[in-house]
Amino acid sequence: MRARARVYRDAFTAACTEAGTQVDVYYAGKAFLSVAVARWMTQEGLRIDTASLGELTTALRAGVAPGDIGLHGNNKSDAEIDLALRSGIGRIVLDSLPEVARVAEAAAALGVRAPVMVRVTTGVHAGGHEYISTAHEDQKFGLSLAAPDGEDSPATAAVLAVLARPELELLGLHSHIGSQILDPAGFGVAARAVMTLRAEIARRTGVLVPELDLGGGFGVAYLPGDVPLDPERAAKEMVAALADAGRELDQPLPRLSIEPGRSIVGPAGVTLYTVGTVKPVRTDDGSVRTYVAVDGGMSDNIRPALYGADYHAEIVSRASDAAPTRCRVVGKHCESGDIVVHDVALPGDVAAGDLLAVAVTGAYGRSMASTYNLVPRPGVVAVSGGVATPIVRRESVEDLLALDLG
Ligand SMILES: Cc1ncc(COP(=O)(O)O)c(C=O)c1O
Ligand SMILES: N[C@@H](CCCC[NH3+])C(=O)O
Question: Which residue positions are annotated as catalytic (predicted)?
Fold first, then answer.
């Protein structure tokens, strides 16, 4: 995970330095956050992007400098805004028009000036699944750049509203176009759209917005043979699009920030399961598929059920010469959609007690975990240089019952 953080930091720093600007890389904690993770990321020179009271509190508990933390959310609570302002975090990303006034009033009540960005939606639709592409128009995030006839776009209106409030300091404009993006072209289109808004604001108000955040979404390889997005290429294309738009619009380059989550922690994580029941099932076409049930499932990885996501699994506790057989890895929950790996070839002698590893589960696995069927959530163990260190304790049934008021 640390190595991947360095790769992103170095690729974007190199591209920005060459173009004559600077970049901040925010690790998107929604992918997976713990106190240890927040510390590692700051040690690698990354900042932390949070999206809830829990994530913000975790980053603060880890000792991350408040100025290096950002807060997102399409429906921020009063408690989230209050903690962000009291602790002096670096930026609150505004997601709607009502939030402009809410944050301004909260800042006035505390006697502080709130550093804010405005999240805009560019109409660029990118990413792996409809549920994870976030910048098309008909969804809940951000403020649209599309202007109805003769009117300001919601994004322009929000920026003008921010500039009219002395309690708010406009740091930048934000765009996040989706997740698990494998073609960097969408970032360039979005960069140009946001640069156009920046030019409009400069023309109308004389204010040159200092920073653009182009979000996260950098895609990873989930299966053997998948080709991940290349961070160096993404950095170069993003910066080139900003520079081209800057030349056309006669604008200096802004400072850049990005918010990768999945691409930092996804491939760094492996889920270890123990095989239980193994059941050959005759399918409709007469062939046999072996259902390999493990001691977890949709409660620790909802992605196959939610997005139809594919993963790869291998038996890691022993070597086997048995001929491979067509398997489906399933969980222990009361849903037939409780699938961990739809289709994988495992040795034909796969048996109860084998340890099965599923690769690339570091992002949006444990962080989206539930306790469905009152199955306690697994622990998280960090491994480095052959040393294993638990960083999140395994939950117990007693932990779950501790919440039960009887
Ligand atoms: C605003 C924002 N930033 C960053 C991310 C992180 O995305 P990813 O994990 O795909 O890099 C997300 C999630 O898609 C997001 O909504
Ligand atoms: N949770 C999603 C991505 C959403 C990213 C957050 N905006 C996934 O597992 O792919």
Answer: 334
Spatial separation of the C-alpha atoms in residues 204 and 394, rounded to whole Å: 55
Which residues lie with the beta carbon below 6 Å from any ligand 2 atom?
Answer: 30, 132, 134, 179-180, 303, 364
Pairing of strands 355-359, 270-282: antiparallel
Tell me which amino acid residue 161 is. A
Rounded CA separation 132/304 (Å): 13
- Compute the distance between CA of residue 306 and CA of residue 325 in angstroms, rounded to an integer: 26
Cβ of residue 174 lying under 6 Å from some atom of ligand 1:
no
- ipTM of the complex in this document: 0.98
From the alpha carbon of 179, which atom of ligand 1 is closest? 10
Q: Report pTM.
A: 0.97
Query: CA 302 to CA 318: how far, in whole Å?
Result: 28
User: 143 has which bridge partners?
Assistant: 120
Ligand 1 neighbour 215 (Cβ under 6 A): yes
The per-residue pLDDT for range 30-85, each reduced to its tens digit, is 999 999 999 999 999 999 999 999 999 999 999 999 999 999 999 999 999 999 99
Question: What is the token pair recorded at 342?
Answer: 């739809």
- Shared domain for 345 and 362, answered yes or no, is yes
Residues 173 and 210: beta-carbon distance below 8 Å = no
Q: Quick one: 229 and 301 in the same domain?
A: no
Looking at the fold, whether 89 and 106 belong to one and the same domain comes out as yes
**Shortest-distance ligand to the CA of residue 260:** 1
Nearest to 89 by CA among 110, 64, 111, 52: 64
Query: φ and ψ at 228, to 5 degrees?
Result: -75, 165
CATH classification of the domain holding 331: 2.40.37.10
